[in-house]
Design goal:
heterodimer, A: alpha/beta, 12 helices, about 20% strand, B: four-stranded mixed beta sheet, two-stranded antiparallel sheet, 16 helices, 6 strands, about 10% strand
């Protein structure tokens, strides 16, 4: 993975030179040709299959840096907050939702992040009674471009000592050098997206193996970081039970379960518009073979009894390893929670409270 | 370019044998019924004369009036009056625009014709002009549609006739174009045979592509299976029934678990022998927990009677939780 991020071209948007992060990135990539451009309008009607992953765009972002995860009332959401530091990702997972956004190609780093932190800090300070769980891994991988963007250098210091917030770096990579060299551990969670080894090798193109991810997790754990895992998307495939068990066995080999703040489970779901894109970009994939139905949020998801079976199996295997691992479901109904995990937070507030409690238990100071 | 000086010029009598039969580079007609035009020419003569220009083979290409020339050839006429553009100095693009505007006010183009027009213009105009100037003229709503239209000329003549007849939607054509070349004729054939409506066409293609990938069976092989072929040959069914049966078969194969649950539920409800004014439905895809009971009634008395009957129906309490594997 570390050698795999190839940047052939930098597009430097007008206004980016006002920010120090932009100059730092140009220094880090001093051999890459730079082209100054005016902010682009979204590509109209393009059906190009190339997402421009070799192009890095430095953007003075004018949108929202901080916003709630777009949940839906019909399913229970974890109440996560997105810290929007960039978009797109050098890896090329066949199921990735970002493929549906062809009008926003290329890797994008928001160079005015540091300037926005003050505003975000004020929002956090206005609600000392709340716990804000923020993460940068929604629209990009949190660490895949860390050696270029230096997020692990910018963000942990900002969260240190904030009693009502935690920052989660969510990644599929083993690029943890930045984090390991950071002096801060407080209020920072490093989490890995996991899958069965088969899915990881066949569908998560450009991502390190599960073993490498877990070895990276161990390094972070050994260096004092709180660790999280996300089995999302869980995908049915031949011998899926064996596959997911192998991953859990590997977790046992590398990870001390006491250091896990949470493990989430989420079965594959996708907006209908993504299906033709997956078919075009990944013609050999079998991830769409399952029985997908229209969910209550308009997304395609496995038929409910299948989801219950998958979650119940995962719960059983994980709980054999550790009983209190902060296991939760991503975007599922009260019924699915109850029938697969044996309890339910009933609604979004309930799940938020549960995860907030986990934060308080892990970060006691 | 002011075309009026040409259109007002004196016609030349041209031997029909000198006019190239093939739809040359200006032709914008496909899939038309020539009989009404033959009847009109027989009754009233040639009202609007064709426009032609000499091509590299020494024959005349038809710039405007392809259908009229074809009708006149059918009528075995020998010489016809034409305006000859050969020495006009007009460029190919100007002649194409002339032909386009000869057609635009009088008729709408079918999708094959739109594709022909776009392909003929393509070497002479920029992509931007094609999108900005010609898309609105041809009432093409998106760049994606434009790309699909431009690929239609690659289909076989019978397939193009189906498209020209409006029996297949542009969206479906787009999906067919995404199939490999070996699969396209088989899919076209089935759509033609079963006369799926536009929604059914999309569902049909989605099912067969999904099944083909899941079971790793090529689409032509899948559609050649006895069970599926048997549907289109089933003499007991009319065409809409065949279309429905085909989609039901494919859905069952694509969603064995879901359809199994639906069938199990329907069987169980049918066994209850509910009053005719009562219906029990499962939630869509069994995604939520609640079943739905519908009672039609005219008076409270009738409602009460229905509720009493329902309360006495044995087996009603056997309708189980919808997330159980077997209902």
């Amino acid at each position: 993975m570390k050698a795999d991020v190839r940047i052939d071209r930098i597009l430097f948007e007008e206004g980016a030179d006002d920010y120090e992060l932009a100059s730092l990135i140009l220094k880090r990539l001093n051999r890459v040709p730079v082209e100054k451009i005016i902010p682009d309008t979204p590509r109209q009607g393009s059906d190009s299959l190339n997402m421009g992953k070799e192009t890095l765009r430095l953007v003075p972002f004018k949108g929202e840096f901080f916003k709630p995860c777009p949940g839906t009332k019909r399913y229970i959401c974890c109440g996560y907050q997105i810290l929007n530091v960039g978009t797109n990702c050098p890896m090329d997972c066949s199921y990735c939702i970002l493929q549906a956004y062809f009008n926003q190609p290329s890797l994008r780093i928001f160079v005015n992040l540091e300037q926005e932190l003050g505003r975000i800090g004020r929002i956090l300070d206005e609600h000392p009674e709340r716990i804000f769980r923020l993460g940068t891994g929604e629209f990009t991988d949190s660490l895949a471009l860390d050696h270029i963007a230096g997020w692990s250098n910018i963000l942990p210091g900002f969260f240190k000592g904030r009693k009502n917030a935690v920052l989660e770096f969510k990644t599929k990579t083993d690029r943890v050098e930045g984090l390991l060299s950071s002096p801060y551990r407080d209020r920072v969670i490093v989490s890995w997206s996991l899958n069965s080894p088969d899915i990881a090798s066949r569908e998560e193109h450009g991502a390190p193996s599960i073993r490498k991810r877990l070895q990276a997790a161990k390094r972070c754990m050994d260096e004092g970081y709180a660790i999280g895992f996300h089995f999302d998307p869980l995908i049915l495939h031949p011998k899926w039970k064996d596959g997911y068990m192998r991953t859990i066995e590997m977790m046992d080999r590398y990870i001390d379960p006491e250091r896990i703040i949470w493990i989430s489970l989420g079965c594959l779901r996708y907006v209908p518009a993504l299906k033709p894109v997956i078919r075009k970009r990944h013609p050999g994939t079998h991830i769409l073979d399952g029985e997908f139905i229209h969910g209550l949020d308009g997304k395609m998801r496995y038929f409910k009894p299948i989801r219950i079976e998958v979650y119940a199996f995962m719960r059983e295997q994980i709980e054999k390893w550790r009983n209190n691992s902060g296991l939760y479901l991503c975007m599922e109904s009260d019924e699915v929670w109850t029938k697969s995990l044996g309890w339910s937070p009933e609604r979004t507030e309930g799940l938020s409270n549960y995860l907030d409690r986990r934060v308080r238990e892990f970060f006691t100071n | 370019m002011d075309f009026r000086r040409f259109t007002a010029s004196v016609p030349t009598l041209i031997d029909l044998n000198d006019i190239d039969d093939s739809p040359g580079q200006y032709c914008m007609s496909f899939g038309f019924d020539i009989k009404p035009l033959i009847n009109s020419i027989e009754a009233f003569g040639l009202i609007n004369i064709p426009f032609v220009t000499r091509n590299g083979d020494g024959l005349m290409d038809i710039v405007a009036g392809y259908r009229r020339v074809m009708a006149l050839k059918s009528l075995k006429r020998d010489k016809i009056p034409c305006i000859d553009f050969s020495d006009s100095g007009l460029s190919t693009l100007e002649l194409l625009n002339f032909s386009l505007h000869d057609n635009l006010p009088t008729r709408t183009f079918n999708n094959v014709e739109k594709g022909m027009i776009l392909n003929r213009l393509n070497p002479y105009v920029s992509k931007r002009a094609l999108r900005g100037d010609y898309m609105p003229l041809l009432k093409i709503s998106s760049s994606r549609d434009l790309d699909i239209l431009m690929k239609i000329e690659g289909f076989t003549k019978p397939n193009k006739e189906t498209i020209a007849g409006g029996k297949i939607s542009l969206k479906t054509i787009g999906l067919i174009l995404e199939l490999d070349k070996h699969s396209r004729p088989a899919v076209f054939q089935m759509i033609n045979d079963l006369r799926f409506n536009f929604n059914q066409q999309l569902t049909f293609i989605e099912y067969i592509v999904d099944i083909s990938i899941k079971e790793e069976v090529p689409v032509p092989e899948l559609l050649d299976e006895d069970q599926l072929k048997g549907v289109s040959h089933d003499r007991k069914l009319n065409t809409p029934q065949k279309a429905k049966k085909m989609l039901d078969l494919l859905r069952t194969r694509r969603f064995p678990f879901l359809t199994g649950k639906e069938k199990g539920f329907n069987k169980k409800i049918a066994r209850l022998d509910l009053p005719k004014n009562v219906r029990i439905e499962h939630p869509p895809f069994f995604e939520t927990v609640d079943y739905r009971l519908e009672i039609n009634f005219r008076t409270g008395k009738e409602l009460k009677k229905t509720v009493d009957i329902l309360a006495r129906i044995e087996g009603l309490d056997k309708i189980e939780d919808s997330s159980k594997k077997d209902l």
